[in-house]
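Researcher: Final request for today, and then I'll write up notes for the group meeting. The sequence and the SMILES for adenosine-5'-triphosphate follow.
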Amino acid sequence: MLQQVNGHNPGSDGQARESLREDLQKFLGGEVLLHQLDDLTKVNPVTLETVLRCLQARYMADTFYTNAGCTLVALNPFKPVLHLYSPELMREYHAAPQPQKLKPHVFTVGEQTYRNVKSLIEPVNQSIVVSGESGAGKTWTSRCLMKFYAVVATSPASWESHKIAERIEQRILNSNPVMEAFGNACTLRNNNSSRFGKFIQLQLNRTQQMVGAAVQTYLLEKTRVVCQAFSERNFHIFYQICKGASEDERLQWHLPEGAAFSWLPNPEKSLEEDCFEVTREAMLHLGIDTPTQNNIFKVRRKAAPLTFGRDDGQPLS
Ligand SMILES: Nc1ncnc2c1ncn2[C@@H]1O[C@H](COP(=O)(O)OP(=O)(O)OP(=O)(O)O)[C@@H](O)[C@H]1O
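Model: Predicted protein-adenosine-5'-triphosphate complex:
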């Protein structure tokens, strides 16, 4: 006779476990081609193992997006997959009668959200939440979405609307190197880790053409300026200044060539994010002229940590 304790039946628990194990073996060893499961709700039974095995099989087959009901799971390919983000593909998802029937993609989410705005008589704001651990690809995904809207949220018939969208696109894209220079740093997990949160608002007019954008930032990890974990670095901007300032600028900003700063560890790491020129260029495009930039970069002001953290304890001016 089966014993029942506090309404709990250990015998049925054991049976359930056994049947789950059988289901699991049947699923993983069976006919199902795991990489073809494009929605994790089709995984049966749903366990950590089956879900991970399915994602792993898709990753091995170079398939980086998988639906999980109405959520999209994006895997970081850690390599360029150019055809996955081409303007042609953006247009294909935009023109599809039912984009959700195409392969799972971040463009499906972008298009679905765009249609939600369009289909409502009284437009309601739509939000896309991009979340994941450090290095998962959130910044990359947000950039993809911005590029997608810059392509689709314009009227192909109107040259003027196209020009406006192009200008906004350029400004949005130019805001990235600036924000990344001042707010990103090299960490153990990600060479270009955002050390702040972002709310990016894309503004559409009544005919759903993009007419503006705003970016709000949150919770910048300010402590990084004076304290960096082992093998990590300070914000990119300080290395950019040290590596990229001209001779004149060094004089102006009291920044001797080759000076070492205790608050700028691991300067020998050479990253593509260390390019001062890119930041300056992007700032110019955003309307921050050279004199204003110089004021920002003056060592005594924005780059004060360089003064305080000099290795030999020498004051710089
Ligand atoms: N879809 C993708 N295709 C190619 N490379 C990618 C993709 N997604 C991410 N990566 C690569 O992974 C790196 C880390 O991605 P990203 O900076 O977007 O992560 P994150 O989630 O924003 O990290 P953090 O929270 O640390 O800022 C990128 O620099 C890029 O090289």
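Model: The radius of gyration is 25 Å. Residues 224-308 form one domain.
Researcher: Thanks, that's everything.
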